[in-house]
Amino acid sequence: MTSVLVVEDDPIIRAALIEVLTAHGLVVRSSPDGFGALREITRWQPDAVVLDLGLPDLDGADALKMIRGLSQVPVVVATARDDDREIIRLLNAGADDYLVKPFSGGQLVARLAAVLRRCGAPPGLQGAPGAGDLGVSEPHGTPLVVGELRVDPNARTAHLAGRELGLTRREFDLLAFLAGNVGRVVSKRQLITEVWRQPYVDEQTVVVHLSCLRRKLGESASLPRYLHTVRGVGVKLVSPR
Predict the structure, then answer these.
(1) What are the residue ranges in the chain where pLDDT is below 50?
(2) What topology does CATH give the domain 3-118?
(3) Does 144-237 match 3-118 at the fold level?
(4) Which of these, 39, 40, 74, 147, has the minimum number of CB atoms within 10 Å of its CB?
């Protein structure tokens, strides 16, 4: 599968980028700083990099030069800087494309696909999540009921107090797995193995999906009802008392 390294220091923006890219079938890792990105590129060798310029340890332009000293990996610069001279300078320094914030997730995915095509790599990008597009095998079985939550693996639907939850494919698979292991603490690594079924997935990807799932369940990590975090161990789904 196509892999992307997201280099972004803002945790909210980084989480949003991870969510968008994983929803389109990409394997994503992230780094909040330039030197961490250089280590990831050396060790992991991603297929593409999304690079912010406002990093805490290195200016993004300097990080780009260092990346080019290590690799010819396609780099899409994503930043709030919109000066024409800056854009031209970065493209001449080795950036493959440039996006000015704010931009849509669809635009980022389209730019990545175009860059990968130009570089001769198969893009491996998929459309918006839906049945059959993320490579996770279909769960089967009788509906799972936890409190007012009802998860139907065959119909791939989830309802809370009779209201259908609008879940992405990955969110549904995550919820179905947790509902099938109700009351058990499951580690992030187990979720990567059983739900993502990919060897290289950033644990932050799991955190982002759990956060989205909590939001759709009408709860938060600080005020949980169904999804409870066990610090240092993992997460479990329980029936609210």
Answers:
(1) 127-140
(2) Rossmann fold (3.40.50)
(3) no
(4) 39
